[in-house]
Amino acid sequence: MADINIGKAPPNNAVLPFYATASVAFAVLCLLLLLNTDSLLTHYFNPHLLAIVHITALGWATMIIFGAAHQLLPVICERDLFSPPLATLSWYTLTAGSFLLVVSFWNLTTGWLMISGGLLILVSVLAYCANALLTSRICSRYSVVRLFITTSSLWLVFTVAAGVLLAINLYRPFFSINHLEALKLHAHMGLAGWFLQLVAGVSSKLVPMFLLAKSAKEKLLKYACLLQNSGLILFLADGYLSGKVEWRAMLYAALVATGVLCWLLYLYDAFRNRVRKSIDVHMKHTFVSFIFLIGAIFLIPVVFFSKGYSWTILYGTFLFMGWLSGIILGKTFKTLPFIVWNSHYKALSGKVKVPLPKQLYSEPCVTWQFRLYIAGMIVLPVGLMTVKPLVQAGLGIWFLLSVLYLYNVLKVLLHKTKTSKIEQ
């Protein structure tokens, strides 16, 4: 990470609150899953699972993505973040809005409490998008990355706006299509529009950087962006106009899947041409997470044509726990320690002996975190397809993982400056 331009990084109070809140939210969601195992064994449209899904999507994944993006946008675009106060506003409104929304879903309290939560999240998203778009507007060196950031930001606005409309529809029905069908469109707008395209764009810059690698096949990323957006737009348009998700969704999913393949082929080419041959546990987290993304894509036709809810729950588990959580768990200790190290030691480096960024957290904890992640993503899916005790065991593993992760994040955030004289 020596080539990161730290001088253009935003102040810590615009970034670190996102990491702290996300780590707590992750522990809370894993605890709620452990205490409410039955929510994974019934229809996916149940109050507790809806609350947990929104903790995962908003309090965990989007929260930490916002924090990392505010830090990494100046790195990728090589200019100051447009507005640190907007970043702070996005944290306050995302935190408050997520809390109101989750409480409303948990108690299935429709009305202004739920709608207010959605509106607060919309304010947060608009603040984030303003920062993302205005920071990246003159980013000329990484045009494809900028394109992914732009499209993902727009999809995020559409997703949250659709979520607010869904909250209103629960209170005062006005949709012309079935609410569950609209929920499918909303969910995939977020997954394939916001999460997939943001991860694709940022990873196409960060993975080569961490591996000291380079790929000349940038056209693959352009194809990836075009195919992912084309497939998603056709899926949403067809679903809205027909009033339900039809078999044609398989064709649109194939377009998105081809876009995912192009993106992964780009990363593979960078991996093949890397200078750094050893792969640390952080990158292993990332690469294993891609397996679950691919697995989820292969599950799409199974979910569509099968009856019942177990395959749908497995599909969501692969995406939220296997893919998104896997990436976040791996990347947190690639970025957070460096942010904190910079605030403590940048001005002291070379003058006194200072610790390395990797010494701000526990490396054994990260190793065990990766082992628990693998174990949890073996036991939980098997349990979902077989017996409840295995589901409970898998969720117990995830809760242990979340506690370990929370401890390590707090260890970094609460770090005190430590120096010693340089030996002559």
Mind explaining what this structure looks like?
There is one protein chain. This protein is an all-alpha fold. The chain has helices at 16-35, 47-77, 84-107, 112-136, 143-171, 179-211, 219-242, 249-272, 281-305, 310-345, 363-385, 388-413. α2 (47-77) runs antiparallel to α3 and α2 crosses α10. Mean pLDDT is 91; it is low at 1-7.
Question: In brief, what are we looking at here?
Answer:
The protein is an all-alpha fold and about 425 residues long.
Main traits of this protein?
12 helices, disordered N terminus, globular, 424 residues
Number of DSSP helices?
Answer: 12
Proportion of β residues?
Answer: under 5%
Provide the helix percentage: over 70%
Rg calc: 21 Å
Topology as a string of helices (H) and strands (E)? HHHHHHHHHHHH
Arithmetic mean of pLDDT: 91
Main pleated sheet: none
Secondary-structure-derived class: mainly alpha
SSE layout:
Layout: H1 16-35, H2 47-77, H3 84-107, H4 112-136, H5 143-171, H6 179-211, H7 219-242, H8 249-272, H9 281-305, H10 310-345, H11 363-385, H12 388-413
Helix pairs in contact: 1-2, 1-12, 2-3, 2-4, 2-10, 3-4, 4-5, 5-6, 5-7, 6-7, 6-8, 7-8, 8-9, 9-10, 10-11, 10-12, 11-12
